[in-house]
Amino acid sequence: MESKRNPAEKGGRRGAPVGVPDEPGEFITHVDLTVVGGSGKYAEATGTMTFDGVSHTGTVPQTVDLIYKGTVCGPNVKGND
């Protein structure tokens, strides 16, 4: 199962949906984000985030499973804000 989850990491255009072999209507997406600055309390924020998603276009209603992880830090950012 793990080998099917991230084919976008193996040469595909990052962020572009990639069809899952032998699973019609299933698409995966992988996106890496870099946070550089912001406004308000996020001014001078830095960090990274990674998103991995699976779209189920063959279901009614269509659904998406999204897993995201990362950190964003800055001088004005406090936990639970």
Question: How would you describe the overall organization of this protein?
Answer:
- With 81 residues, the chain is mainly beta.
- The protein has one domain (2-73).
- The chain is 5% helix and 43% strand.
- The chain is elongated.
- The termini are far apart.
- Residues 1-12 have low confidence and may be disordered.
Give the low-pLDDT segments.
1-12
Number of helices: 1
Structural class, from helix and strand content? mainly beta
Oligomer: single chain
Order of secondary-structure elements: HEEEE
Strand order of the largest sheet: 1-2-3-4
Strand content: 35-45%
Number of DSSP strand runs: 4
How many structural domains? 1
The largest β sheet comes out as: 4 strands, antiparallel
Element layout with pairings:
Layout: H1 2-5, E1 18-19, E2 26-36, E3 46-56, E4 63-73
Give a summary of the structure in a few sentences:
The chain has one helix spanning 2-5, and strands at 18-19, 26-36, 46-56, 63-73. It has 81 residues and is mostly beta strands.
Can you tag this structure with a few keywords?
81 residues; mainly beta; elongated
